[in-house]
Amino acid sequence: MVNCSTTLPASWYTSKAIYSLERQAVFLKSWMLLGAVTRWPEVGKDYSYDLAQIKFLVRRDSADPKSLRVFSDPEGREMRSHLTPTGLLFMTLSDETASFEEYFPGLEDLIAHVDFTKFQVRRTLKYPGNYNWKAMVDGFQECLHCPYAHPAFSKAYAPTTYEIRNKHNYSQHFVETDRPDDGLFLYFFPNSTLNLYAGGMSSFRACPSEDPAQTTMLFDYYHCEPDGSEEFENYFKFARTVGLEDHDLCEKTQANLEAGIYTEGVLNPDKENGVAYYQGQVLEMCSAQFREETVGA
Description:
The chain is of the alpha+beta class. The protein has a single domain, classed as Naphthalene 1,2-dioxygenase Alpha Subunit, Chain A, domain 1. The protein has helices at about 15-25, 100-105, 105-110, 135-140, 145-150, 150-155, 230-260, 275-295, and strands spanning about 30-35, 45-50, 55-60, 70, 80, 80-85, 90, 120-130, 165, 170-175, 185-190, 190-195, 200-210, 215-225. Strands 8-14-13-12-11-10-9 form a 7-stranded antiparallel sheet, with helices on one face. A 4-stranded antiparallel sheet has the order 2-3-4-5, with no helix packed on it. Strand 4 (about 70) and strand 5 form a beta hairpin. Helix 1 crosses helix 8. The relative contact order is 0.19.
C-alpha cells in the first residue's frame, strides 16, 4: 500500500488523460455509498443517478428496505449492491469489483452500533463545483487547517484532538467531544463520506465529470426531527456552513492549481495521513491500470 509523502501533482487535478485513467482504475472498481435506506422512501419510484458518466437507478419494490435494488439506466440490468444490517446502501459499477466484505473489511462491525434507519432524509442538495473531485476529498481527509478553514466546527470539536485512522478503503475520524454518540466521521474511498454529529447525519458524494475541473456535489441531510423543526434547522445551518466553507476553499485551490501557483507539497505525516492514504490509493490503482493498458497496447 502506497502512502504519499507529497501531494499528487497539480496535473492530476487538471488533466483529462489522468481522469480517464482514474475512471477506469478507481471509479469502475470501487464500492460507493449511496445513502441510508430512508433516502428512497417511495415504493416503485426510480431515483436517478449519474456517476463517472454511467447512469443508474435506485428502486424500492416494497416497504421492506431489503427490496432496494440498483439498475443500469436505460438498460434495466441489475447492478451489484450491498445493504448493511444497519441500513446503508452501497453499490459498485463493475461486476469485477471485489466483494463488499473484502473491499471494506471490518466496516459492518464498526457501524453496528448505529441504527441508520432512524434518520429520515430531510434535505438533499445537488450543485456543481468548479474543482476536481479530489480537491473535496483532500479537505475532508485532514483537519490540520480546521481552525481557520472551519472556525465554527473547531469551536465544537477541538482540532487538537482530531485523529484519522486509515483502514482498508475507508478512514475513521476521531475527535474528543462531551456529547455521547457524537462525532462519527467516515470516509469511503474514493468519493463519499458519512458524518454523524450535532444531532444529525450527513453524507456527500463528489461525482467527477469528463472535465477534470468540474465536479457534481451530492449532499444528503438526515435527522430524527422533522424538516423545519428547530433541531433540524440548527443542525442543517451548522453542517451547511462547513460544506460551503469547503466548497469555497476547493474552488480557490483549483484556481491556484490551474494557474500554476501551486504544483505539489509535502504532507504532514501525522495531521495529513488521511490525505496521504487516499492519494496513495489513487496513485497505486492508476499506476496498475496504466501498466495494464501499456502491456495490452
